[in-house]
Amino acid sequence: MTEKQQGDVITGVISDVKNSTAAIGKDITQTNIAAPPTAEELRELTAAFTTLRGQIERDAPADVRDEAVRQADALKEATLGSKPDVSLMAQARNWFLKHAPGLFGAVTTVIVNPIVGKVVQAAGDAVAAEYRKHFPEAQS
Length: 140
Known about the structure:
Layout: H1 39-59, H2 65-80, H3 86-99, H4 104-111, H5 114-122, H6 125-134
């Protein structure tokens, strides 16, 4: 009969790991922390929201134009505020789907922008998970 040993013996060799992670051990949890967006990327995203607002002002149906602009402004604040509010982002997109479907694609394009993915990832795993749940088409 073989005697049981106390503890685990874990060995491994890792080499040439440059742009990925590796771990050796037991009960390991790893979290990839994406780089937050740069100042230039935030300027690009702000410009995308400005362009979207202009498109909404120009193309939204007259009977919902004022509310469409408010929704776009709320979307921008929900995305670029101190902490992204993914549920408000989803509400805004759903509003456009229901009331101004011709602008739904433009709104979605801004929401799934890779820079938005960086913004939500920088806010933490819970926010990023909620973002992926509401916007599975995003590449965050």
